[in-house]
Amino acid sequence: MKDHVSGAVLAWRKSTRSFSSDDCVEVAPLPSAAVLARDSKDAAGGAVLFDRAGWRALLTRVKEGELDLPGR
Known about the structure:
Elements: E1 2-5, E2 8-11, E3 13-14, E4 25-29, E5 35-39, E6 48-50, H1 52-63
Antiparallel strand pairs: 1-2, 3-4, 4-5, 5-6
């Protein structure tokens, strides 16, 4: 799916680890090195904007398991 933000065409993608599941996050890099993220189940529901440092911090926390749900 492609969207437009401030004239830029965004190419949304989701992780290859999500397989065919719709329960995932899609991301779209911006020319400014920022990243947009959205829920794949609700693509029209909006997106969260991360600057480069914020995106790296989020990825670090995810990789370290800090954001895992209890019991998973």
